[in-house]
């Protein structure tokens, strides 16, 4: 799998890495987590179509070598990146996650569906700003060339150039609820 995503796996202390490995192997004796196990383990069943599609996209993003499984190193790399990674790396990872069709750009439909899915998963669908308004605000602020798609450069630069926007975006598009659930569940086994 390698260290292709620039993750901070190497920053983890050996003791913590051993604990994570022990917990992972307790839950996944085969050493590989399938999509079905991922959903079942984290209680991510019975979600609406958009939320389910988002969970599947998250799984595919964690599955860095695209073999249909999340192995231990992929698990640690994903958790380490989301929990401890530099903001630049997190933004690149979020971009990859949100680029559902893998064409190198995020369009309005992709972003809108992801915002709705994350809000549904996190239980905060009734926010002050609607998902549609938030999506429009994102595109108004960071779609520099006005083509209706966000390139990686626009996404990262837009988040970096406006602290208020970065805060709103990171809260609205936050994965920490799921990552915390993953991390806490692993430590409680």
UniProtKB/TrEMBL annotation:
One Pfam family from the record: EF-hand_7
Keyword RNA-binding attached: no
Molecular-function GO terms, alphabetical: calcium ion binding
SUPFAM superfamilies on file: EF-hand (SSF47473)
UniProt keyword list: Calcium, Lipoprotein, Metal-binding, Myristate, Repeat
PANTHER family, A to Z: CALCIUM BINDING PROTEINS, EF-HAND DOMAIN-CONTAINING PROTEIN
Listed name of the protein: Guanylate cyclase activator 1Aa
Protein source organism: Myripristis murdjan
